[in-house]
Write a structure and sequence with these properties.
With 171 residues, this protein is an alpha+beta fold. The protein folds into two domains: 8-74, Arc Repressor Mutant, subunit A (Orthogonal Bundle); 86-167, Glutaredoxin, CATH 3.40.30. The chain is 40% helix and 11% strand. It has helices spanning 17-24, 35-46, 51-61, 65-74, 94-98, 101-112, 154-163; strands spanning 86-91, 125-130, 142-144, 147-149. A four-stranded mixed beta sheet has the order 2-1-3-4, with helices on one face. Helix 2 packs antiparallel against helix 3 (51-61). The longest helix is centred in the first third of the chain and has 12 residues, at 35-46. Bound molecules: FE2/S2 (inorganic) cluster.
């Protein structure tokens, strides 16, 4: 399936999310077996699968929207919300919790103005709570993208996260 190109006449105007999704999906109807590949294509292009994609994929494949939604929520690989350029996972497993993991996540929540599971409005960061990152001897621990940081304090965590803003590190 080759995604359609955006019409050059559209350049310079704001393309709606629905229009964007239509350019990702094939023009012709496809079989049920294309359901997961289409979801993957949308996520690959947008970083998540927005609600708008559910109806459009349902129309293309003939699979009822409720079933498309069921598949989306069943597979952990799919995200229903946009994810930030950087993913911050703060450990709240036992060792990290005892050594102040709660204070780390609170400091980051305040600093980024998001709750765990949310993404900052500039899409720079997604904050997540996790249970044990397997580095308990370094507690309290957080992972930013692929990088592990241990023996954190709230101040240290905020400073580290700020290094990832803009071009600090590529995600
Ligand atoms: S409890 Fe945090 S790394 Fe294990």
């Amino acid at each position: 399936m080759i995604p359609r190109k955006v019409d050059p006449r559209d350049e310079g105007r704001n393309v709606t999310l629905e229009e964007q999704i239509k350019t990702i999906l094939p023009e012709q109807p496809v079989g049920k077996e294309a359901l997961i590949p289409l979801l993957q294509q949308v996520q690959g292009a947008l970083g998540y699968v927005p609600e708008e994609a559910v109806c459009l994929i349902s129309e293309k494949t003939g699979v009822p929207a409720s079933e498309v939604f069921g598949v989306l929520t069943f597979y952990a690989q799919f995200r229903l919300k946009p994810r930030g350029r950087n993913l911050i996972s703060v450990c709240l497993g036992t060792a990290c919790h005892v050594l102040g993991g709660g204070k780390i996540i609170e400091a980051l929540q305040r600093h980024l103005d998001v709750e765990p599971g949310e993404t900052t409005s500039d899409r720079e960061f997604t904050l997540a709570e996790v249970r044990c990152l397997g580095s308990c001897s370094l507690a309290p621990v957080m992972v930013v993208n692929e990088d592990t940081y241990g023996r954190l304090t709230p101040d240290k965590a905020v400073k580290i996260v700020e290094r990832y803003r803009d071009n600090g590190h590529d995600s």
